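Section: Multi-chain targets

For targets with more than one molecule, the full set of components is provided together so that the structure can be written out for the assembly as a whole rather than chain by chain. Components appear in the order listed by the source. The example entry contains two components.
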Amino acid sequence: MKNSLKIILVVILAILAAGCIGGNKTPQSVSEPINLVKMGGQDMVQRLGTGEIAGFIMWEPYPAIAITNGFGKPLLYSGQIWKGHPCCVVAYDYNWYRNTTNADEILKRMALVQLKSVEYINNAKAISSPDHEDLIKYTMEFGGMTDPKAANLSLSDVEFVYTPNIADAQTFITRIQDFGIFDSGKWNQSGYKNASDYANALINKSYSDWASQNKNANLSSVALKTPVTIRYAYLTNDIHELPFYVGWKKGWFKDAGINITLSDGTPFLNGAFEMQKGFKSGAVDIGSLGIPPVIIHRINSNDFALDDARVEVVAGMNNEGSVIVVGKNITSMKDLSGKTVGYPGPGTIQHVLFLMEADKEGLKVSY
Amino acid sequence: MKVDPGKKGFVINILSLICFVVLWHFLIILARNDIFNIPFIRLRDIPTPIETWYAFVGSLFTQIHGPALTYGIMEHMQASLLRVIEGGIIAFIVGVPLGIGMGYSKPIGNILNPIIEIVRNMPPMAWIPLAVFILVAGGSIFIVFIGTVFPIILNTIHGVKSIDERLVDAAKTLGASESQMITKVIIPSAFPSIIAGLRIGLGVGWMAIVAAEMVIRSPVGLGYFIWNMGDLGRYPEMVAGMIVIGIIGYIMNISILLLQKRFIKWVD
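Its structure, encoded as tokens over all components, is:
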């Protein structure tokens, strides 16, 4: 009995000591690291308002809501960190594609509606546009906002696009490889030689190319002969995905012969959920989400025997559109040293952007 | 030849564990080969014991990637254990005097009983939103405290009320003062029950800390680790973290049982 007691005490002490030893491996930095803490967008806004966090990096509309409420000010727009960085995309489930005879035709129309929606939004952003009021209404509905000022501000930060960007996706893949986010065993199973190989397999530009060639065509003139139903998924209140909402509300998908039904689980809380509970479980045919969860889960969550988490990008949604928002006493990244900053989670584009900026400033980040 | 029953039990325990691991391995392999499946469960996505072992070894210590620092399981384990120990100590300091007071004095019992009865029926997880939105710091420790304090209070009350009346009468006859009665008779007699309460409480506290760390914005902790790994689709690391949680809980339980047997010699 005495021996058992001794063994257990030694085990507990060893665990605590090992933790301390591990803790000593923390790299020494002149300044204190910035403490990144994962939290939801609404929580970030609230915590910044009460002063419990010094700042956050997040997608729109949360920065706009925090700024218009007077809780904080923009420190850096994501485009200042990485010009034209990729963000949300439209993606399709590979198994749906394999089992659908006219999948290519459907995806071409999806890309065309995306193009028309993006053009509509980009034109209607101008206050002088006759569509501006409608656009603000759609933005407030989709973003869960009550203040038109916040809606306007959030729109101004986002660059809506329809062409997916292979080169920037490749850069992003390289970054998250550096951070060790990919499961190395799964990466080996995938068979991709490098980031470029993976980015080219992930993004199919033929649909957006077709859409560009047919951009002046009337949707009903290119509509599918037999209408189809697509189970679509999107993220909660994410302004980056506004082009989908506009196309849906305007009835443009229907005009192109595509009936949209929202998939089980929509709207999803984040891209990781949409990938795992939506695409992987077969509940989603096509959806919009951030390219980071697509890139990560197509490797980490994929069962390569079934290719159940294999998704491919059909069109872009937006570039940029995230902001580092900080409290009143912060004027530079260095001021965040030793303070708590909210971020949406590991492997998100916001995470990568923040790490890039911290690295540039010679600042360390801890969790 | 006679086999020592203790050794026989130990061998059966080890065999049972080995069988479990082998069964786990083959179930996953069968599922991955489409030979066996359970509806609504993606069995094939569960990592095999070998994959889990490699993930465990690979994520034991601090790992540094680029400008970011990510912690290993050891750091997460240490953070969670410290929270449980801190919450447990606070619960012990608060729970034991309260329990003695309620068990020893009827008026105190009558005053506090209705409050304790209502509050103790709120599960620790129901306190998480309060810890998130109201408490400025120490939310996870608070959740452990909530999970631990009520078993300690109730067991202390039970221990005090179960004292042999003859002991109390004898002490009174020998002229023991009120404070002597509590320190020399009540506490030693109720101690086994108090320790039993602590054991149950820490078990609840350990379960609560994992849930709390998933929700409360905690930089480290095993609950945080397994949720993050799930978020990234790193299922072998996630399952390795789950197993570590189970093993720590088991070690904590056994440790207190052994301490109880080692130090409370007057209980048979």
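Chain B has ten helices and two strands.
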